[in-house]
Design a protein that fits this description.
Layout: H1 16-24, H2 36-54, H3 60-72, H4 85-89, H5 93-106, H6 110-132, H7 136-151, H8 155-163, H9 174-196, H10 204-231, E1 252-253, E2 295-298, H11 314-320, E3 325-328, H12 334-337, H13 341-344, H14 352-359, H15 370-384, H16 391-406, H17 410-413, E4 425-428, E5 431-437, E6 460-465, H18 467-474, H19 481-495, H20 502-506, H21 508-516, H22 522-528, E7 543-545, H23 546-560, E8 578-580, H24 587-602, H25 607-624, E9 640-641, E10 646-649, E11 661-664, H26 667-686, H27 691-701, E12 710-713, E13 723-726, H28 729-735, H29 746-757, H30 762-769, H31 787-791, H32 793-803
Parallel strand pairs: 1-5
Antiparallel strand pairs: 2-3, 4-5, 5-6, 7-8, 9-10, 10-11, 12-13
InterPro entries: DNA_brk_join_enz (IPR011010), Integrase-like_cat_sf (IPR013762)
GO molecular function, one term: DNA binding
Keywords: DNA recombination
């Protein structure tokens, strides 16, 4: 499959005596008592295969005769020859393989099964080599995969026999057999890619074919890797250098958008408020990304409404954070100033680079093509795993490869002691990985919610690393900037990528994840690549499993690894846990909350209390079926179109830059809002003496600039009647604290998570929730969504309404009618 060394395919010269001792050592296995005849048979088969590899000519005839004769002697007694799943599973894998081989001979199936018999013998010999080399995983893999090919009735396993060539026509040599496996591996990879690119991906037949293709690819992948690790010499593990004792590196926390390395090191932190130094390694002339120009930043602070008793979480601050603006004192170069608009259109914005990446413009020179990324990956992998003329070039390639597969900045990797530092790099057994935290705010103790009510229970992301690469880099001297410049220049020339730069290497993983990996998108890429919080607020409002994130990551590396030269077997399944918002509640929990709120509303003791509880209930319904930020005065009537089912909203009312967006209204929400408006009109009719209230309700009825959802509250003692006020989030929290003891901002986390769970595309989620990148708002210049696209999300909101039981809930008037001019003594003081 892959090789991370400079060796050609040559046989590992292991003496036969060593293998024989390995087989004899099976007698000492305390978990199973091997009969002597079994040990002798396995030794005979392994010796026969071993001698055939070293024969000067193809001795296939003598090879098969010797194996058949050994099996005809029936070394496995009848008591062990039970060919079924349960009985086989009780025995060691190498014995299971011998049983299946003996079964072929006993049933006289040699005419059609010599091929299987010889390939099974090769697998047994390979396993013996791997046992000697103490490669337990590879040993299990090759024995298990060939066992399943012979034992299973599923075409997912037995396809191997039709795919492998007739062994009589195959030279018994390491090079030839490895070539056979690699050819099959490439065919299975191509077949899976073709299925993934099939436009009819939703059909059950295509889904089954894709599942079958994945199973077949996994089978040949494990066999190829195991065979290669047994027969291809591996580099000895390099001796590590001691890490500097004075290096201070903080663990990666995305909530902390500060430098992760000391500013007094060789990798000086880039100060955006000053002219940058000449650190644009290998940059091309007139490259906007690496031009050393002075720029001025003006951050618009997150303006958050404060509420009594409610603490503003980090996630909410990020949600309200405004993208910083950039203004250039002058253009990097006069050539750029007069170039085509696509190059200059965004020069005044901080989101210049990321926005144009998301636009996927063909003329965008800040990106490489997919073929370019694949060629780059292949070149770096080859240089990093091969002893070049100079060790410096190998180290440069290794650092760039590590940056490419992790997104770690090259400047950080050049700090002495950074690679391998325990705050960033973790070692668990033989596994290497980097670990970072999203920095999610710890949930406060709730009187009404238990840990099981939340979707997510961790904010830790782990990205596995190839141990050979880390070991090599830890044993090498770090290169200097001039070394990188020279290596990049040579690399740029050799693979024909004039736009190649350090920045394009560092961002490669994000680009491949967000653009070329099936079923993945920019949000997943932000999580895996550690995009800082202010530029990726969406990752604090969703839920993912560690298993799914790792599958996306491996898929991205598979796409980069188009030549199959990079060994991906180090990527194995982690412990499964959910990652994301610390405030997203499960759908079942929210359903219970809704039911409790409705019961609480129906149990009102008077008309005024019923009014306030009904208003709070509809306020929560409004938040749960739109995902809006639960702010004061939510839902102005002149922004709500109940006939067309639209909500025009600017739910950052205190921010300095206005950016409205559209949210579709689902039928259930339209019905609740329509019924609530009728409820207000009915209350007006019953209390005609409340003139202030009547005037406010008239404005609501006429669709004027008035919030729809209101609370009754008593004015000064001298006032003749109560009046209405806009609902504040603090009101909603305090009035329902006995039902849900959590900041009502949880509704937004819940909606964002459910939209993704229900399969809404990332662009539409960001449009509806308000998490678009700068200048990509749906009503803005670079919108990637149409109003028709947004309108279709209403059907998804309707599914959420049905899951919460809101489709079956109606707004009822208070059953006991009050007389006109009812005393205000019983009015529920919502603002107490």
């Amino acid at each position: 499959m892959s090789q991370n060394n400079n060796a050609s395919y040559s046989y590992r010269q292991m003496p036969l005596e060593t293998l024989t001792k390995t087989i004899d050592a099976l007698k000492e296995d305390k978990t199973f008592d091997y009969p002597k005849t079994v040990i002798d048979a396995i030794s005979t088969i392994v010796s026969t295969v071993h001698d055939s590899y070293q024969a000067n000519e193809n001795a296939i005839e003598g090879f098969s005769i010797a194996i058949v004769q050994a099996l005809q002697a029936r070394p496995v007694s009848d008591e062990y020859m039970q060919i079924n799943r349960t009985d086989l599973a009780e025995k060691p894998l190498i014995l299971q393989l011998l049983i299946l081989m003996q079964d072929i001979v006993i049933k006289q199936q040699l005419n059609q099964s010599v091929q299987q018999l010889v390939w099974l013998s090769i697998a047994m010999h390979t396993a013996a080599l791997l046992i000697t080399l103490d490669k337990k995983t590879d040993t299990k893999n090759i024995l298990m995969q060939f066992k399943m090919a012979q034992f299973s009735a599923s075409t997912r396993r037995t396809w191997l026999w039709q795919a492998l060539p007739d062994i009589a026509q195959t030279e018994i040599s390491i090079e030839r057999i490895l070539s056979v496996f690699n050819t099959l591996l490439q065919k299975r990879q191509s077949a899976l890619v073709a299925l993934k690119n099939n436009p009819a991906t939703d059909t059950e037949e295509v889904a089954k074919d894709k599942s079958d293709a994945k199973a077949k690819l996994s089978q040949i992948e494990k066999i190829t890797t195991a065979y290669q690790h047994a027969h291809v010499p591996q580099k000895p593990k390099p001796k590590r250098k001691k890490l500097p004792k004075n290096i201070k590196v903080k663990a990666i926390n995305l909530a902390d958008n500060t430098s992760k390395y000391p500013v007094d090191t060789i990798a000086t932190r880039h100060n955006w408020n000053t002219t940058s130094s000449n650190d644009a390694w290998g940059s091309t002339r007139d490259d906007i990304e690496h031009s050393a120009i002075a720029i001025d930043l003006a951050f618009l602070e997150a303006n958050i409404e404060s509420h009594n008793g409610l603490t503003t979480s980090f996630e909410e601050r990020i949600d309200h954070h405004e993208a910083p603006y950039v203004s250039y004192g002058e253009y990097p170069n006069p050539l750029i100033k007069y170039s085509i608009p696509l190059q200059t259109i965004d020069l005044s914005l901080q989101q210049n680079y990321m926005s144009q990446r998301n636009l996927a413009l063909n003329s965008n020179t800040r990106l490489l093509s997919l073929a370019g990324y694949q060629a780059l990956f292949a070149a770096l992998n080859q240089d990093a795993s091969t002893l070049l003329e100079t060790e410096t070039d190998t180290t440069c390639a290794g650092i760039l490869l590590l940056s490419m597969i992790t997104g770690l900045p090259v400047k950080s990797l050049l700090i002495p002691g950074y690679i391998g530092h325990p705050n960033i790099f973790k070692i668990k057994g033989k596994k290497y990985y980097i670990e970072h935290s999203l920095g999610i705010t710890k949930r406060s103790t709730s009187q009404t919610l238990a840990e099981g009510d939340y979707e997510n229970h961790s904010d830790t992301i782990k990205v596995p690393l190839p141990s050979w690469l880390i070991d090599n880099l830890l044993a090498c001297e770090l290169p200097v900037k001039e070394d990188f410049t020279a290596y990049l220049a040579a690399l740029r020339s050799s693979i024909g990528l004039p736009y190649l730069s350090v920045n394009r290497i560092e961002t490669a993983l994000h680009v491949v994840l967000s653009r070329y990996t099936p079923d993945c998108h920019a949000h997943i890429a932000d999580i895996i690549c550690r995009t800082p919080a202010p530029h990726a607020p969406a990752m604090y409002y969703s839920s993912h499993t560690s298993e799914a994130l790792m599958a996306h990551y491996k898929s991205a590396l598979c796409i980069l690894n188009s030549n199959s030269d990079f060994d991906l077997t180090y990527i194995t399944a982690w412990h499964k846990y959910t990652v994301g918002s610390g405030f997203a509640l499960k759908i079942e929990t929210v359903c219970d909350i809704i039911n409790e709120m409705k019961y609480w509303t129906d149990q009102s003791s008077n008309d005024e209390e019923h009014f306030n509880r009904t208003s709070i209930f509809v306020w929560f319904v409004f938040c749960l079926l739109t995902g809006v930020r639960p702010n004061n005065g939510l839902g102005r009537m002149y922004d709500i179109d109940l006939d067309m089912g639209w909500l025009l909203i600017n739910d950052k009312p205190v921010k300095k830059v206005k950016s409205d967006r559209l949210i579709p209204l689902c039928p259930t929400l339209i019905r609740h809002l329509t019924d609530y408006r009728a409820y207000l009109i009915n209350y007006q009719a019953k209390h005609q003496g409340y003139h202030d209230i009547s005037a406010i309700i008239d404005n609501i009825r006429l669709g004027n600039d008035e919030a729809l959802l209101k609370l009754l509250y008593e004015r000064a003692p001298t006032a003749k009647s109560p009046t209405l006020k806009d609902i504040k989030r603090g009101d909603a929290y305090h009035m329902t604290k006995h039902i849900i003891d959590a900041n009502p901002y949880w509704t937004r986390h819940f909606v964002r998570t459910q939209l993704e769970n229900l399969g809404v595309s990332l662009s539409l989620i960001n449009t509806v929730i308000g998490h678009e990148k700068a200048r990509q708002e749906v009503l803005g210049r670079f919108s990637s969504s149409s109003k028709a696209d947004i309108k279709r999300v209403a059907s998804v909101f309707e599914k959420i309404a049905a899951q919460l039981g809101l489709s079956d809930i109606t707004i009822n008037h208070y059953p006991k009618s009050n007389h006109v001019g009812t005393s205000t003594a019983e009015v529920d003081h919502a603002n107490k």
